Amino acid sequence: MTGALDTALFVATVVCVLANAAEVVAKAVRAPFMVQNAAEAGVAPKWIPYLAVIEGAGVAGLVAGLFGWKSIGFAAAVGLVLFFVVAVGVHVRARVFHNIAFPAGFLALALAATAFFAGPAG
């Protein structure tokens, strides 16, 4: 059972890397959907590049963790958990629920990555 769980957490961690990397690119190029979502949630456009840098650091840390620096991967995963807890909170505060599944899904992936790096396989 542990082998299957380790594999599932590894896959979720890789998906977390890919999903967050795609989101960083969307923020970096100021994709219209990203700017619109931020505006709906009350996030000023000037903050988008800073959010991209923070999220990008998380991606880099997860990749480092996958390449053997487990403590960096763990720290990055925890950082992404905090990032997406705030993102979900911002959506709730702004009462923007039609797309809350996205930050909630990213939060779930970050939690899985945290569990992966906290476990013996990470």
Automatic annotation (TrEMBL):
InterPro entries hit by this protein: DoxX
Subcellular location: Membrane
Pfam family, any one: DoxX_2
Topology term for the membrane: Multi-pass membrane protein
Membrane spanning residue stretches: 50-67, 74-94, 100-119
Record's keyword terms, sorted: Membrane, Transmembrane, Transmembrane helix
A Gene Ontology cellular-component term: membrane
Principal location class: membrane
Protein name: DoxX family protein
Originating species: Nocardia flavorosea
